[in-house]
Amino acid sequence: MQQFSVYAVEPPSLGSYVFNLTPVDKCKLLVPEESIDKYKEAEQWKDFMTTTTSIASVSEGQMPLIRVSPGMLNIDNLNDGPAVSVYTLAGQKVYSAASDSGSMSVALQSGMYVVCINDVASKVLIP
Questions:
Q1: Angstrom distance (rounded) from CA 76 to CA 84
Q2: In the prediction, which pLDDT does 86 show?
């Protein structure tokens, strides 16, 4: 069974076909406890709800925080200078660096990317 963890308190809007090939009715969705009702009503997320459970909210400094804005990827809470790599969905590496300041910003074209921080991968959509 696949599992998605979404730490956003407000359900993100990801585009029309982002879960098109994903069997969401068989995936477990983990969201902040205070947001379960919001995800149950939100387009793109409500189909996960039969198996949704909650996660505790993330405290500042516990793990890297990935934020996106038009044309920009921002990563905070990069403690101990982890290696960060960004790949296209086709597997082409478009960025790689280690953080020495605890945060970084990367300019990217609109699209889907895989962000790897040490050995943890996350898929992100850059608007």
A1: 11
A2: 95
Q: Are strands 83-88 and 3-5 parallel, antiparallel or unpaired?
A: unpaired
Burial of 110 per CB tally in 10 Å (0-12, 13-18, 19+):
exposed
Beta bridge partners of 97: 84
DSSP 63-76: S-EEEEETTEEEEE
**CA-to-CA separations, 28 to 6, 59, 124, in angstroms, rounded:** 11, 22, 18
- Report pTM: 0.54
Query: Backbone dihedral region of 41: left (phi > 0), alpha (psi from -120 to 50 degrees) or beta?
Result: alpha
Computed over every residue of the chain, the mean pLDDT equals 80
